Amino acid sequence: MSKIEEVKAKVEAGKSKLIPGLVQEALDAGIVPAEILQAMVDSMSVVGDKFSAGEIFVPEMLIAAKAMSKGVEVLKPLMAGDSSSSLGTCVIGTVAGDLHDIGKNLVSMMIESTGFEMVDLGVDVPADAFVEAVKNNANVKLVACSGLLTTTMPAMKEAVQTIKAAFPDLKVIVGGAPVTPEYAGEIGADGYAPDAGSASVKAKELVTV
Ligand code: B1M
């Protein structure tokens, strides 16, 4: 089994303790961080499919998520770009009712790498908490809302609309598997991105045009 296949298999199996070492071995073998990250993202898709098929349950999804997070910790310093220029502060969070944070954490990491100061509110963030964070932090230029559940799409709408009502000129970007560009437009978001890399490009574009 190649190193990358080993990383994938161990993330799927939720072997958190083994992952940092395996990711390091993959790096030492010359595999680039983006490829290792993609392998772990693919593993989470496999885990999701197994969950949908009733082959695994929530605890298994959770341990796989923990394993992936351990791998991301190893990659994070290597994926950070040049953040020496400041584009302002970005408040980020996963919307109310939603506990998924791996995608949000990747998006945060990538937006930070383009030159934003990040204020991460975590998961299950009510609309009002986004507004409070904008008020309580200096130079907020962007709010980023993540959501992974179809059932929390109304909470994303509420978040965007509450933020926009309080700060009409502040830019808001949304994303997450159930979000589409059409839905983003419909709920009044300024930007949408399908993945972490494009979220960082869109984030910069939103505050510099
Ligand atoms: Co849950 N879960 N989960 N889960 N989970 C999904 C999302 C699901 C698709 C699995 C499935 O059924 N196949 C399904 C949602 C179905 C739907 O609504 N359409 C689901 C479900 C149903 C649930 C529960 C309801 C299960 C239950 O209790 N019966 C429950 C809900 C809990 C809650 O939130 N209230 C639940 C719980 C959990 C765990 C807690 C066990 C765990 C999360 C742990 C954690 O995050 N710390 C978990 C996991 C791990 C998953 C899967 C397997 C993996 C998610 C993940 O981390 N993917 C997931 C299946 C899947 O995704 N295929 C699933 C990797 C990550 C890098 O991708 O998060 O999509 P993703 O992020 C991407 C893009 O979406 C995008 O960029 C990221 C990186 O490129 N993106 C943005 C994300 N946010 C963005 C923001 C942006 C821009 C882009 O701008 C601001």
Automatic annotation (TrEMBL):
Location of the B12-binding domain:
87-209
Can you cite a GO biological process for this protein?
tetrahydrofolate metabolic process
Q: Which Pfam families match?
A: B12-binding, B12-binding_2
Cytoplasm as a keyword of this entry, yes or no, is no
Residues forming the B12-binding N-terminal domain are 1-87
UniProt-recorded Gene Ontology molecular function terms: cobalamin binding; metal ion binding; methionine synthase activity
Which terms are listed as keywords in the entry? Cobalt, Metal-binding
Against Gene3D superfamilies, the record matches this protein to: Cobalamin-binding domain (3.40.50.280), Methionine synthase domain (1.10.1240.10)
| GO CC term (a single one) | cytosol
Protein's UniProt name: Cobalamin-binding protein
The species is: Acetobacterium paludosum
